[in-house]
Amino acid sequence: MKKHTIRIVGGAYRRTPILVPDVAGLRPSPDRVRETLFNWLRHFWGDGFQSKRVLDLFAGSGALGFEAASHGVAHVQMVEPHPLAVSALRTLRNKLGAHSIRIHAGDALHVLSRTEAPYDLVFLDPPFGQQWLDKVWPILPQVLAPEALVYVECEAPVTPPDYLVMERQQRAGQVYFHLFRFAATQKTVNNA
């Protein structure tokens, strides 16, 4: 069986190959989508990546989280339940010496419900067709820092909950991708 690889498209680890494990439902974010996403992030953050904390809630191949680490964010928390994918993530993290990356082998909703540290950016790229976003939306605000950004990649356009404001959206082939900003209100904070 031929092994599938993708590459980190920017930053310190640029051109580093990422082995994509043969795991059902795992589809890494395409190169051009990641490139567009990080152009959007530069628009909002300028060169201020170094102070940012990132949560990659459905890590899969780790393409989004490794890209964030490559751009110099302070901390990346990856969450992935599949043992084969977790092993591949840890192998690449160790090979790169990417000390800003932490990898949690577990369920996204469990981690999200127990996380208290605020994140400046959350990647939501769940397996398609499983209504993960409906499960994530009610508990997501508790992990978002003020003005946090939320990236969503899915098989259809997304209508976000009231606490998120659309900043950017685009389509590449069968993939729809969106960047939202957390618009915290007193009501949101009280309900979280």
Number of strands: 9
Q: What series of H and E elements makes up the topology?
A: EEHEHEHEHEHEEEH
Show unreliable segments: 186-192
Spatial extent as radius of gyration = 15 Å
Helical proportion? Answer: 25-40%
Number of helices: 6
End-to-end CA span: 46 Å
Textual characterization of the structure:
One of its GO terms (biological process) is rRNA methylation. InterPro entries: DNA_methylase_N6_adenine_CS, RNA_MeTrfase_RsmD, SAM-dependent_MTases_sf. Keywords: Methyltransferase, Transferase. This is RsmD family RNA methyltransferase. This protein has 192 residues and is α/β, with parallel strands linked by helices. The protein has helices at residues 31-45, 63-70, 83-96, 108-114, 132-136, 186-191; strands at residues 4-7, 17-20, 53-56, 75-80, 101-105, 119-124, 144-154, 164-172, 175-182. The protein is globular, with a radius of gyration of 15 Å. 37% of the residues are buried. The model is unreliable at 186-192 (pLDDT under 50).
Task: Describe the structure concisely for a colleague.
The chain has about 190 residues and is an alpha/beta fold. The protein has helices at about 30-45, 65-70, 85-95, 110-115, 130-135, 185-190; strands at about 5, 15-20, 55, 75-80, 100-105, 120-125, 145-155, 165-170, 175-180. The chain is globular and about 45 Å long.
